[in-house]
Amino acid sequence: MKADDLGASRPLVFPLYQTAVFTLPDLDALDRIYDEGAPGFIYARDAHPNAEALAAEIARRESARWAVVCGSGMSAITAAVLACVQSGDRILASNRLYGRTLTLLFQELSRFGVEAAVVDICDLDAVAHALERPTRLLIVETLSNPLLRVADVPGLADLCRRTECRLLVDNTFATPELFRPLEHGADLVVESLTKLMAGHSDVTLGVVSGNGDLEQTIRQTVSIWGLMGNPFDSWLAQRGLSTLSLRCRSACDNAANLADWLAKQHGILRVVYPGRAEHPDHELAKRLFQGHFGNMLCFELDGGREAVNAFLRRAIGIPFSPSLGHTHTTVSHPATTSHRYVSPAERRRQGITDGLLRLSVGFEPIEQIKAALAAGLGQ
Ligand SMILES: Cc1ncc(COP(=O)(O)O)c(C=O)c1O
């Protein structure tokens, strides 16, 4: 039997095309791909079947016309930003963005003459005021890290529409299961697929999606800056995505249950979860999200760093791991991981104390997570 002759058979699962380059029969076939947009692939840094299959699936979930897969969440953000700005342009960013995104704007792009400023996006008047200066791009996260403030994307999109400003939403903490920013007026949406979307902590990938005119510019940016994701990670992410709805729903249900349970335990000063009535954005989250409030929550231990160390040593069933979106529950400590290089004064201002822990809730049986948390709390 010839291995590449499938006859009438077709694979049920989209195959992995683990190749960096493709062959073509002649120059005419090559020209048709380059010049006429005929189907086909040439070089995997530009495009490859696994990235395209994944992108098509994500575009459907985001209500996007197109999506471009990139090698990480950061490369997706980089591609989106580079496609939107020129030297001399101004970017406005939420003051609660992921630290590396802020570094990209303030340390990297500033070297190329791009100006950046931050604003409290929970204050729409402050955003309107900041947009009085010509601004090319506003960057926000649907749910901020770690305190899960919710961006009023419809309100922000309204403000952007009155100017020349585009709205880019990093939807990593929400995923399209909770919220689809393009349906609420955003111009571009970015996801770190590394997290809940691929969902098994074995992939580093990102994606940028949209409906507007930027697809070709972003594809070119991805090719020239070398931002493309690789075939195997794309294949794994596509497999992970097929269970996203189930995983996300179970993890969100667990998170809501745990938030209420943690609030009743001794030694806990506060619980932060958008599904709880005391969260400052609870009403907004109810209005925007599709019935769930996410798989992320924070709680603050009485006793600061010492209490955190004791918790981590005792909570054997909950790995200390500074990422999110794994199958199982993991815990992180924002003050020494994601916000390690933020000044203590700024951390205090944001409410990121030494006793604050962030849980990425998984979909294992709830009693198993509670038992591990109870052990961590010394119960
Ligand atoms: C909200 C958010 N956006 C983007 C990223 C970057 O994603 P990646 O690590 O896939 O580059 C992260 C990573 O933690 C994140 O939390």
Show the helix and strand layout.
Layout: H1 27-36, H2 49-62, E1 66-70, H3 73-84, E2 90-94, H4 99-108, E3 115-119, H5 124-130, E4 137-141, H6 153-161, E5 166-170, H7 175-178, E6 188-192, E7 206-210, H8 215-225, H9 231-241, H10 244-263, E8 268-272, H11 282-288, E9 296-301, H12 304-314, E10 330-332, H13 344-350, E11 356-360, H14 366-376
Parallel strand pairs: 2-3, 2-4, 4-5, 5-6
Antiparallel strand pairs: 1-7, 6-7, 8-9, 9-11, 10-11
Helix pairs in contact: 2-9, 3-8, 12-14
This protein binds pyridoxal-5'-phosphate (PLP).
Keywords:
379 residues; alpha/beta; Aspartate Aminotransferase, domain 1; seven-stranded mixed beta sheet; four-stranded antiparallel beta sheet; globular; binds pyridoxal-5'-phosphate
> Distance N terminus to C terminus?
63 Å
User: What ligands are attached or bound here?
Assistant: pyridoxal-5'-phosphate
How are the strands of the largest sheet arranged? 1-7-6-5-4-2-3
Question: Total strand count, please?
Answer: 11
Structural class: alpha/beta
- Continuous helix count: 14
Radius of gyration: 22 Å
- What is the 3D form? globular
| Top CATH class of the largest domain | Alpha Beta
Largest sheet: 7 strands, mixed
